[in-house]
TrEMBL record:
Gene3D superfamilies: ABC transporter involved in vitamin B12 uptake, BtuC. Belongs to the ABC-3 integral membrane protein family. One of its GO terms (cellular component) is ATP-binding cassette (ABC) transporter complex. Its main location: membrane. Involved in the high-affinity zinc uptake transport system. The keyword Cell membrane applies. This is High-affinity zinc uptake system membrane protein ZnuB. SUPFAM superfamilies: ABC transporter involved in vitamin B12 uptake, BtuC. GO terms for biological process: response to zinc ion; transmembrane transport; zinc ion transport. NCBIfam families: PRK09543.1. It is found in: Cell inner membrane; Cell membrane. It comes from Govanella unica. The chain crosses the membrane at residues 6-29, 41-74, 86-105, 112-143, 173-203, 215-236, 242-259.
Length: 262
């Protein structure tokens, strides 16, 4: 019989894995891994701001992530600095400012390591409820957005000609990523969130015939990584969040042993 804390951890991790699959697939298709890093690093600034002003960090995480996403979408229009350079600047600047803001937080200090690397075994039923609610909202918003995301991924200019509002679709996708990051921080932490988005999607790519195949496969790989990582953490007493990502990495390398689907 599983302990109660393991059941909570499994529910939280599996819920995140389900929605990280399709969102991470879009990141892989659009070669936006650095974008995921920029948003995940900015989440730490959101945590620090939440504690500094005395509000729920989950709400400030979403606000900061959306603000960074909007800033990036505006800055990428200029041509003097490459987009990957901008993403690197934004990611590390947000992380640095988050650490600086933390130094001004009064009262008991929160566990920085838990926010950096996750502490899935400590999630409460309230946390599970928040994560499930956030994941449900993301899925409901993603369903109508999915065809438009595929259109701008295949050919952005053609999608614009056909009437797709590219900027709004981008913004909607960024908002969904921000919500997932806010929910996933307790699972794998700031520094490992992008790995949970990218690695399962990359592992599923070799066996996928359609975009939906890849999205579903990425969700499945993510769920297997959660199960394997938590199992390894339970039996070998290793840190849970990094164990989940390590298991996802093993699944990625094992995917090369399987033949590509034609």
């Amino acid at each position: 019989m599983l302990d109660d804390f393991m059941i909570r951890a499994l529910l939280a991790g599996l819920a995140i894995a389900v929605v990280a699959g399709p969102l991470g697939s879009v990141l892989v298709w659009r070669r936006m891994a650095y974008f995921g890093d920029a948003l995940s690093h900015s989440a730490l600034l959101g945590v620090a701001m939440g504690f500094a002003i005395g509000v729920n960090p989950q709400s400030t995480i979403i606000l900061v992530c959306v603000g960074v996403a909007v800033a990036l979408s505006l800055l990428e229009r200029q041509r003097s600095i490459a987009v990957d350079t901008l993403l690197g600047i934004m990611a590390h600047s947000a992380l640095a400012f988050g650490l600086v803001v933390m130094s001004f937080v009064q009262g008991p200090r929160f566990d920085l390591i838990a926010f950096l690397f996750g502490d899935i075994l400590s999630v409460s039923w309230a946390d599970v409820g928040w994560i499930v609610a956030g994941v449900t909202a993301v899925v409901l918003l993603l369903i109508p957005l999915w065809p438009r995301l595929l259109a701008i991924t295949v050919h952005e200019d053609l999608a614009r000609i056909e009437g797709v509002r590219v900027q709004w679709v981008r913004f909607g996708y960024m908002l969904l990523i921000a919500i997932v990051i806010a929910a996933a921080m307790r699972v794998v932490g700031v520094l490992l969130i992008t790995a949970l988005l990218i690695i399962p999607a990359a592992a599923a790519r070799r066996r996928a015939r359609t975009p939906e195949d890849m999205a579903a496969g990425a969700s499945l790989v993510g769920m297997l990584a959660v199960l394997g990582g938590l199992g390894g953490s339970y039996w070998f007493d290793t840190p849970a969040g990094p164990s989940v990502v390590a298991c996802a990495s093993l699944l990625f390398f094992l995917s090369f042993l399987l033949p590509r689907r034609a």
